[in-house]
Amino acid sequence: EADIYQTPRYLVIGTGKKITLECSQTMGHDKMYWYQQDPGMELHLIHYSYGVNSTEKGDLSSESTVSRIRTEHFPLTLESARPSHTSQYLCASSHLSGYEQYFGPGTRLTVT
Amino acid sequence: GDSVTQMEGPVTLSEEAFLTINCTYTATGYPSLFWYVQYPGEGLQLLLKATKADDKGSNKGFEATYRKETTSFHLEKGSVQVSDSAVYFCRYFNQGGKLIFGQGTELSVKP
Questions:
Q1: Maximum Cα interatomic distance, chain B, rounded to a whole number of Å
Q2: What mean pLDDT do residues A23-39 have?
Q3: pLDDT tens per residue, range A52-65
Q4: Looking at the predicted structure, is the pLDDT value of residue A73 above 90?
Q5: CB contact under 8 A, B42 and A106
Q6: What pLDDT, in 10s, does the model give residues B24-49?
Q7: How far is B70 from chain A (nearest CA, A)?
Q8: Can you tell me the mean pLDDT for B73-83?
Q9: What residues in A contact B99, CB-CB < 8 Å?
């Protein structure tokens, strides 16, 4: 069983609030990812990291930011939440090759 | 460029029916192919994989064969159960590290 965790699982928050979605993994994986999943289920890569102090933007432009200060931790921050940020956010990790990814359970964010 | 295309959902079946979810790809080189499953309210889990042509991946009664001649990796199950209701993603990974998910196919199995 994969050891990758996301908190909170569900979050309802008002417009303009700052939020941080947490993701941590205990597998020692170097590479970590954030995906945004739209209602049609399609996955969009928004951020990834090769290791500590590495962050890269993904295929889908996002107003969120990420940091990687520790190998096991890859939080995602929205400085000012908007209704358009309402979505499911999935965190994943893998060895550096990216061959096989392990996913967290997701955070369902609703911005009112 | 490289791409993965899955059949559109939702797919609705009765219990014990035969399932096929199509996945085709365009590739440079020789990718590895995967199927991931996402149960309601959860993240994605690896279901099965195949690393080279003619390999067959199998798990939990699901199978998929890597067919290089048709560039396909269709997911099949002989007799689906209500508990198989989920979203299924085909995934491509090549030696250059490029990974692509298909758009996902929702399966709903009715009792």
A1: 44
A2: 95
A3: 999 999 988 889 99
A4: yes
A5: yes
A6: 999 877 899 999 999 998 999 999 99
A7: 23
A8: 98
A9: 98, 101
Confidence at residue A1, expressed as pLDDT on a 0 to 100 scale: 56
| Interchain CB distance below 8 Å, A103 and B44 | yes
What are residue A2's DSSP bridge partners? none
pLDDT higher than 80, residue A2 = no
**Three state DSSP letters for A11-38:** EEECCCCCEEEEEEECCCCCEEEEEEEC
Minimum CA–CA partner of B31 in chain A: A99
Alpha carbon of B39: minimum distance to chain A alpha carbons (Å): 10
B107, closest residue in chain A (CA to CA): A41
Q: In three state form, how does the secondary structure of chain B look?
A: CCEEEECCCCEEEECCCCEEECEEEECCCCCEEEEEEECCCCCEEEEEEECCCCCEEEECCEEEECECCCCECCEEECCCCHHHCEEEEEEEECCCCCEEECCCEEEEEEC
Separation between Cα atoms, residue A67 and residue A74, nearest integer Å: 6
Distance (Å, rounded) from C-alpha B73 to C-alpha B40?
Answer: 24
Q: What mean pLDDT do residues A3-28 have?
A: 97
| B46 interface with A at CB cutoff 8 Å | yes
User: B76 vs chain A: nearest CA distance in angstroms?
Assistant: 20
Instruction: Note the pLDDT of residue B96.
Output: 82
Average pLDDT estimate for B56-85: 97
